[in-house]
Write a structure and sequence with these properties.
With 347 residues, this protein is an all-alpha fold. It contains 20 helices and no strands. The protein has a domain of 95 residues. The longest helix is centred in the middle third of the chain and has 18 residues.
């Protein structure tokens, strides 16, 4: 597929290149989009102009924007979302407009533009309510839930994610939106300290994602369950879920997701009394989270704050800093092997 897209682009067949790229939307959402192909699709959208059908340009821009946002970018997805939004408005495709407004609102919120995010979210909700279409309601509810989550209103976020889940099920949605709603309910429940609710939601998300082969939610749901098991003081199960999740998320190339898994690995080590490994893994996590330039999940940060001080105290500030710096310098592949089995790496 990558070869076909590239060949079509090089031959000037931009409509063919964009049609192939956009037709794989579910595949990219499940497995992640390669960076080189995302860049190629972005260029093709920019060059297409009126020579390519407006509907195809709108869809390709949306798909590329969503994948760029998932990769932790800001400028490119914002530009692509704006382009697809304008085209979908022109074409009168209201559901797609709701979806664009919702994702653009989340992107703005993630980058500190709260007022603009709220205005976009309200517009999406008003249009969704006028449509009365379950998929549109789910998109708007997910957007509002995400804004609530970023504003630390976790109870409201969980309620809205539940609403999105009901709407997605009513719409007969494909597995990805179902798994996404369940995963986000799990995140909100983790932030509220509701372990039972978090475990139920994340286990169901993992089940749905596994049946569908959706790597994004397989990996992240497994890592989330690792955090829940750690909160239950079951480090054996926590490490098992960590290995399952990290093995998947590292292949997706999202530094924020891998950084969250490293944070879990570090905390498991700290809980088991392996302070040197914990310090190294927190360093590896920090290196990736800085690349991601995205907010740390609320419960991830809380878990770290609960365990890191004792590790610093046990090692001393100087040695902790030295070990963390070692972790920061580790190539990702080495850091993954170390997170999977710290004792074996030490030996």
């Amino acid at each position: 597929m990558r070869g076909a897209v590239r060949w079509s682009f090089e031959e000037g067949e931009l409509d063919t290149a964009l049609a192939i790229f956009a037709s794989l939307e579910r595949f990219w959402s499940a497995r992640g989009c390669p960076a080189d192909l995302l860049a190629l699709a972005d260029t093709a959208v920019e060059q297409a102009g009126e020579s390519v059908d407006a509907g195809l340009r709108a869809r390709a821009a949306w798909v590329a924007g969503f994948q760029a946002a998932r990769a932790g970018e800001y400028e490119r997805p914002a530009r692509l979302y704006e382009q697809s939004l304008g085209l979908f408005r022109r074409l009168g495709k209201d559901f797609e407009v709701v979806r664009c407004l919702s994702e653009l609102a989340i992107l703005r919120q993630e980058h500190g533009l709260g007022a603009e995010a709220s205005a976009l979210a309200e517009e999406a909700l008003t249009l969704a309510q006028a449509l009365g279409e379950p998929r549109a309601v789910a998109a708007a509810a997910t957007c509002l839930a995400t804004l609530a989550y970023f504003n630390s209103d976790f109870a409201r976020a969980a309620e809205l994610y539940e609403e999105a889940l009901r709407a997605n099920r009513e719409a007969g949605a494909v597995p990805a939106p179902i798994a996404s709603s369940l995963y986000n309910i799990g995140l909100a429940a983790r932030a509220l300290g509701d372990r039972d609710r978090a475990e139920r939601a994340l286990r169901e998300a993992l089940e749905v994602a596994t049946e569908a082969g959706n790597a994004v939610f397989i990996g992240n749901s497994a890592v989330g369950l690792g955090y829940v098991m750690l909160a239950r003081r079951d480090s054996v199960s926590a490490r098992s879920f960590l290995r399952q999740g990290l093995d998947v998320v590292v292949q997706l190339g999202n530094p924020g997701w891998t950084g969250s898994a490293f944070n879990l690995a570090a905390t498991i080590c700290a809980a088991e009394g392996d302070d040197p490994s914990a310090a190294r893994l927190w360093g590896a996590a920090d290196a990736l989270l800085e690349i991601a330039e995205s907010p740390v999940e609320a419960d991830d940060e809380r878990v770290r704050k609960a365990f890191e001080p004792s590790t610093r105290s046990a090692l001393g500030a100087s040695r902790f800093a030295s070990l963390a710096e070692e972790g920061r310098r580790l190539p990702v592949e080495e850091a993954v092997r170390f997170a999977m089995d710290p004792q074996n790496e030490e030996s």
